[in-house]
Write a structure and sequence with these properties.
heterodimer; A: 337 residues; mainly alpha; MetI-like fold; two-stranded antiparallel ribbon; B: 294 residues; Rossmann fold; six-stranded mixed sheet
Chain lengths: 337, 294
């Protein structure tokens, strides 16, 4: 009788991982091919748009060089074209929208996931989704005709009491007996409010989805310790949902940066870098393109496409960052089990 | 809250012989009277439903202060539901309803005017799966009850609270040098003892344990049982377990739950653990504790 001895540890035989292969089922192969092809088409279209815009932007960028990014005026007749002012205007509108929508979206998401009676939940979710389904042009009309007459009162109040902060200044006397209402209309502030209505449902949906995934075990642990609802939200839901909060906000930011129709209706175009968000007049990249596209000459068209290219790159970066943050959020950090 | 309108109707007393209240004699091993912190817990005619399905029928059980009571019975017989009724966790489930009373030192915890947070603070709970808060350190986990109830304490008091409760849960020696490490980095058994320390830190009068060892290895299980033995003089403990030996080892009295085909769960028999295991009155109890079914 022989006894096979195992080779001593570290005997010099180098283990190499073997290749794992198997024959795939026919149905799997077909689906794999079809799904892969569709996925590739989506990627190809996105890349194609970027490439086309980039290609179209070349003549403009070559002609104006760096001044395309530093010039504030948009005067094709005088050959003076730049996106400095519109980029600032775009950022301002998006920022106002974020400042207004972030607390509302966070509160709404937390309310739906943790506070609202459970039977109302599906209704609330539908209502928020319905908000997202309203066309942006409707929000624009709402902002212009319904919101603006009231919002200018808020704007005046802000400039009365906070006017010493430069961004709340308005180039008129807010305390005048007959105040100049037109100085407060068509501003970054009002456009931002309308855009906020469009970003709220998006941010809320992402945040709520993440909040709902907060582990039930940790929620119950917090409840069993005598935690208040706010306590449960603070110790379990919000730490868990951090990624969703950041990601949802950035997705909303991406949306706000590109919003066109509502902004186009509300603002009156003005091409100067202006920190005063309550004062009439501003311009955003998307509104610039939409507003000038119709009667542009060929060279003006490539300038607009160049502006579009810049916006495309910015929103792509913001959305990609948001996607990365949402994907990374917490998955491995939950209590084991 | 979804089920604020919990059904409060008298249970149908006397329909099932086994549903009738069986007084549990005070355990003799408790010593000279209960600790000041421990409370008597009494369930009176408790029934429970999920939607239209009744899962508990007319359950009454009296748990003396500073004692360990084991709830045993096959899966799906309503033990965990009953346990969750004892600290008002049951009603956090959509569609959950109940009838009857739960008296904490004679005071019905379901009576109007009670705050859920107060009730749950007085009747703590340890769950089947260890569930420390993963974003918090070990010390923060122990003191989590303070944050959850917005209670402010001084730094020294907090450190004292953390230490004393980790000692009570038998975890202090293992973690005293790494209190600021995340609680989720501990082993399963240590996590469960951390959860016990966290539950004890809010000074409950009763501690409910829902199969606290079912996810743990034998050594960790033993440690938890030692902890229970040390805690029994300080707090009233009700433990759900599927492990007969564990029930025999840790408890003074036991209640055998059973849900016979198509009927809601009810207590077949309750009394001193010794009697339940060695001298049961009901043949079904004998069959179950001797492993003949379930």
């Amino acid at each position: 009788m022989t006894i096979d001895l195992l080779p001593p540890i570290g005997s010099g035989r180098q283990a190499v991982p073997r290749k794992l292969t198997s024959v795939r089922e026919r149905s799997d192969r077909v689906f794999h091919g079809a799904a892969g092809a569709i996925g590739m088409v989506v990627l190809a279209v996105t890349a194609g748009i970027g490439l086309y815009l980039g290609y179209q932007a070349i003549p403009t960028l070559r002609h104006y060089g760096l001044s395309f990014f530093t010039q504030t005026q948009w005067l094709p007749e005088l050959d003076r074209i730049g996106i400095a002012a519109v980029l600032v205007g775009t950022a301002e509108v998006a920022l106002v929208a974020m400042v207004v929508s972030f607390p509302l979206a966070l509160g709404l998401a937390l309310f739906v996931s943790d506070y609202a009676p459970k039977w109302t939940k599906s209704w609330l979710v539908s209502a928020v989704d319905l908000m997202a389904a309203v066309p942006s042009i409707v929000y624009g009309l709402w902002g212009f005709f319904l919101l603006q007459p009231h919002a200018i009162l808020v704007a005046r109040w802000l400039s009365q009491y906070l006017g010493w902060i430069p961004i709340f200044q308005v180039g008129t006397d807010p305390n005048a007996a007959v105040w100049q209402q037109s100085r407060y209309t068509s501003s970054v502030f009002i456009a931002g409010l309308a855009v906020a209505m469009m970003t709220i449902p998006l941010a809320t949906a992402v945040m709520r989805a993440v909040f709902d995934q907060a582990p039930i075990g940790e929620r119950e642990a917090a409840m069993a310790l005598g935690g208040t609802r706010f306590g449960v939200a603070r110790t379990v839901v919000l730490p868990f949902g951090k990624g969703g909060i950041i990601g949802g906000t950035m997705l909303a930011l991406g949306r706000a940066l590109g919003e066109t129709a509502a902004v186009l209706i509300i603002i009156s175009p003005e091409y100067i870098i202006k920190p005063r968000i309550l004062e009439a007049g501003t311009q955003t990249v998307s509104a610039l393109i939409a507003g000038n596209f119709g009667n542009a000459t060929k060279s003006q068209l490539t300038a607009l496409l160049a502006a579009g290219f810049v916006l495309f790159v910015i929103t792509l970066a913001v959305n990609s960052a948001a996607a990365v943050i949402i994907r990374r959020s917490r998955s491995g950090l939950a209590t084991e089990a | 809250m979804a089920v604020e309108e919990a059904v409060m109707e008298p249970g149908s007393v006397g329909r099932h012989a086994q549903g009738q209240r069986i007084p549990v004699p005070r355990a003799s091993s408790v010593g000279p009277g209960p600790a000041p912190g421990a409370a008597r817990l009494e369930a009176v005619d408790v029934s429970a439903w999920f939607g239209d399905t009744q899962v508990l029928d007319d359950v009454s059980l009296s748990v003396p202060p500073a004692s360990v009571t084991a709830l045993i019975g096959p899966s799906g017989c309503g033990k965990s539901t009953f346990l969750r009724i004892l600290n008002r966790m049951h009603e956090s489930v959509l569609g959950a309803k109940l009838a009857g009373e739960v008296l904490l030192d004679g005071d019905d915890i379901y009576a109007p005017g009670h705050r859920l947070t107060d009730v749950r603070r007085q009747i703590g709970m340890v769950f089947q799966k260890p569930n420390p808060f993963p974003a918090m350190s070990i010390a923060d986990n122990v003191a989590a009850g303070l944050a959850l109830t917005s209670t402010k304490v001084s730094k020294a008091d907090r450190a004292e609270l953390v230490e004393s409760n980790l000692i009570r849960a038998g975890l202090w020696d293992e973690v005293k040098d790494r209190l600021s490490r995340p609680g989720a980095a501990l082993s399963g058994g240590q996590q469960q003892r951390l959860c016990i320390a966290r539950a004890l830190a809010v000074q409950p009068k009763v501690l409910l344990m829902d199969e606290p060892c079912s996810a743990l290895d034998p050594t960790s299980t033993r440690r938890i049982e030692d902890t229970i033995a040390e805690l029994r003089s300080q707090v009233t403990i009700v433990i759900v377990t599927h492990n007969m030996q564990q029930a025999a080892r840790v408890s003074e009295q036991a209640a055998f739950f059973l849900a016979e085909q198509g009927t809601p769960g009810a207590i077949v028999e309750s009394g001193p653990t010794d009697d339940i295991f060695n001298n049961p009155r009901d043949p079904r109890t004998a069959d179950y504790v001797h492993g003949r079914f379930g």
